[in-house]
Specification:
The chain has 84 residues and is of the alpha+beta class. The chain has a domain at 50-80. It has helices spanning 2-18, 25-39, and strands at residues 50-57, 60-67, 72-73, 79-80. Strands 1, 2, 3 and 4 form a 4-stranded antiparallel sheet that branches. A hairpin with a 4-residue loop joins strand 2 and strand 3.
Length: 84
Amino acid sequence: MKYKKLLAILLLGIMLFSLPSMASAQEITHSAANQISISNVSITPRSDVIVTKYRTYNNKKQYRRWNETRNRWVDSYWINLPNS
């Protein structure tokens, strides 16, 4: 009877030590390194740079906005300036 309990405890101990560990030391340091590098990254949103272009067409002054960041027109057509 005493031997059965001792054998059961011994087998239980072997099973516990043979299970893979939840996280090895290498995984922990790798995880900590990722957290450090992520915390050093700063995100700065930047808005588009919009420039207004002017021209005279048929004796009328017109303007149109150009997006220098994306290299395309913001307005789909030229807009007449009001008479001032």
